[in-house]
Design the sequence.
């Protein structure tokens, strides 16, 4: 009787040790008081986290539910434009995303290169500063801080990348259209992946402007918000500011101040013969 009681007690203690003293580690949460303490009963879009204790349906059901949905026909996301909507009674901050009507093929790359010519953003000091910061974060590690294709990953003293990235200082790239750069940022080129998910619409153009400023420097030309002697496709902000001031002056000159009401009445009275 005594030995049976001891054996029973030993088994109870042993079961407690194995069921209650589980320690967490890695992807294991250890002991759980309730299943939803460590496993949410909710599901998140684009995140697959099936847990059999508190999920409705099967694992395949959940996998289908968390897949990205197609947009409703005829609708666009709020802010789906490069700039905020002006004059339409809608106030919002643009999300920096615009539709891109070129596919990821060699034919479409050539079409984008030929058709995308002008930079939609004027050259500004703040834009060039943003472009420099973004370029150094996203591009310089391969293309180099001077855009000469000699980034950290390919340089001789410890570089690990076997393929030389594009050298934007070559005449081929200096003469290339803005569309060639923009399409490469959207889809990538050769071993370079696309950056459409890393750089927004305006950020891509800022990066292109910064590359142009580096090219202009090597050619001893000016590319700034005051003057652009490098190309005819990018407009300095000073040109736009001057045109705006000229237009405002023309409008002001065209406005004829109205005569005082009493003087107008007197003129009408004299002309009527009364």
Sequence:
């Amino acid at each position: 009787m005594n030995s049976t009681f001891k054996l029973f007690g030993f088994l109870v203690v042993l079961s407690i040790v194995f069921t209650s003293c589980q320690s967490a580690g890695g992807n294991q949460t250890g002991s759980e008081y309730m299943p939803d303490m460590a496993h949410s009963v909710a599901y998140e879009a684009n995140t697959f986290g099936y847990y059999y204790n508190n999920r409705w349906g099967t694992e395949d059901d959940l996998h289908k539910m968390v897949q990205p949905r197609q947009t409703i026909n005829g609708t666009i996301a709020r802010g789906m434009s490069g700039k905020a909507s002006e004059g339409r009674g809608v106030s919002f901050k643009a999300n920096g995303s615009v539709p891109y009507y070129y596919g990821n093929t060699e034919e479409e790359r050539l079409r984008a290169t030929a058709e995308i010519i002008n930079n939609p953003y004027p050259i500004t000091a703040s834009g060039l500063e943003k472009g420099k910061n973004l370029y150094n974060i996203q591009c310089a590690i391969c293309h180099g801080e001077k855009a000469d294709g000699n980034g950290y990953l390919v340089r001789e003293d410890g570089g690990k990348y076997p393929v030389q990235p594009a050298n934007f200082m070559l005449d081929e790239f200096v003469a290339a259209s803005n569309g060639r750069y923009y399409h490469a940022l959207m889809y990538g080129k050769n071993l370079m992946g696309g950056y459409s998910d890393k750089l927004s619409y305006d950020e891509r153009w800022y990066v292109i402007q910064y590359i142009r400023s580096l090219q202009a420097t090597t050619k001893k030309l000016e590319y700034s918000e005051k003057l652009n002697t490098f190309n005819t496709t990018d407009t300095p902000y000073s040109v736009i500011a001057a045109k705006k001031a000229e237009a405002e002056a023309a409008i002001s000159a065209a406005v004829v101040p109205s005569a005082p009401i009493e003087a107008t009445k007197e003129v009408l009275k004299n002309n009527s013969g009364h």
Notes: Strands lie at 188-189, 192-193. The two ends are 136 Å apart (CA to CA). The chain is about 40% helix and 0% strand. The first helix runs from residue 2 to 20.
